[in-house]
Amino acid sequence: MQEHLNEREERLRGVQDGFQRANDTTRCLQQELAETRKALRDEYRRHDQTVKIHERALATSTDKHTKTTTLLEVRTAELQAAETYLTKVDNVSDADLLSMVGELNSQIYQLAAQMSDKISFSSCPTNQLALPLELTQAVERSIGPAILHLLLIRGHSEDAICVQIALQACIVSFAHRIIETWDFETDAANDLLRRAYDSLKITENPAVSGRWRALTKATLRSLTQIDSFKSRLRGAMAEVIVDVVRVAGTSIALSSEELVQSITDNFREHLSAIIDMICSVHKVLGEDIVSSHIAPIFYPFGHVFDANCMEEAYPSGRHSDGQAYNAHPLSIFGTVEMGVQRIETNDFGVGHAGRLHYVTLLKPKVVVETLTNELQR
């Protein structure tokens, strides 16, 4: 019995020792777990602090990058703006421009020849007193008094050469006026812009004044040249032509408005082609050429003939060289083909004006008094 009790006590002590060891192990594990948790919390705090530091650094870098990008965009825009004013590259060459003007002159000549041949005219001279004063005044402003006189003093049913010359002169005058126009809406703005550019030409580098001109004309074109613009120009040119036809003494029994419509209907394709060419030359001279100033040449009535910068459209054969003209200066009665000239500025600078130098690239063709004298015979 005693042995059985001793055995149970021994087993009880063994169990108690096991519990004690288990408790010790549990305490050790709990201590290790607590230490591990503490280490993890410390690591998490350090990691969190590191993340926050990195986030602050990233925010600072992002802010710097944003400011740098914004500054770069501003500087790029400024550089592009400066480059826009400083570039000297033209979109159209001189040779291409001269070809365009030459083709325009050719088209005007062909239209004038066709009209003078197809439109019926009276065989008797026009009675000027029967014409409205505003009509003769408008035609005189367009073609000059000398060519107007030719239209009035003779009939044109057999030979309409005077009508052809007058039509060439009026269409070239119209084309020159359109090409030189800045603002097609208001004359006051047109005059102001022209005077501003004339001032820039003699005080600024050609690249600067040329770019100002190009930007200004491009903006004005986008604002004023709507879809109906060319149609309006075609109508205006038809009216100028009809004025000449009426003064010449057409035998067509139509009112002025009906005559305009008839001219437009019968020559619409040719009129439209000429308007397209005029608008193209207007754009090239105004917007596509920035390295220098190039302008059309149109000499009005009364200008002295100079063989160095112009040609006779219908040579009479009386003068074989330019020296003969100098011996007996001849007056110009009208321009029938446009020329082209480059206007260069020398010695320009801030605070003082430069000097303009004119270089003829394409000589205009003009009618001089010798031809008109022969036609009056």
Question: How would you summarize what this structure contains?
Answer:
With 377 residues, the protein is mainly alpha-helical.
Question: Based on helices, strands and strand pairing, what is the structural class?
Answer: mainly alpha
Query: Overall pLDDT, averaged?
Result: 85
> Cα distance, first to last residue?
174 Å
Number of strands: 6
Overall structural domain count? 1
Shape: rod-shaped
Q: Describe the biggest sheet?
A: 3 strands, antiparallel
Reading the helices and strands in chain order gives HHHHHHHHHHEEHEEEEH
Number of helices: 12
Spatial ordering of strands, largest sheet: 1-4-5
What proportion strand?
Answer: 5-15%
| Uncertain stretches of 5 or more adjacent residues | 319-325
> What share of the residues lie within helices?
55-70%
Give your account of this protein's structure.
With 377 residues, this protein is mostly helical. The chain has one domain (95-375). The protein contains twelve helices and six strands. It has helices spanning 2-86, 94-118, 133-143, 145-153, 161-179, 187-203, 206-224, 229-248, 256-266, 268-288, 322-327, 369-375; strands at residues 293-297, 311-312, 332-337, 339-346, 355-362, 365-368. A three-stranded antiparallel β-sheet has the order 1-4-5, covered by helices on one side. Strand 4 and strand 5 form a beta hairpin. It is rod-shaped, with a radius of gyration of 44 Å.
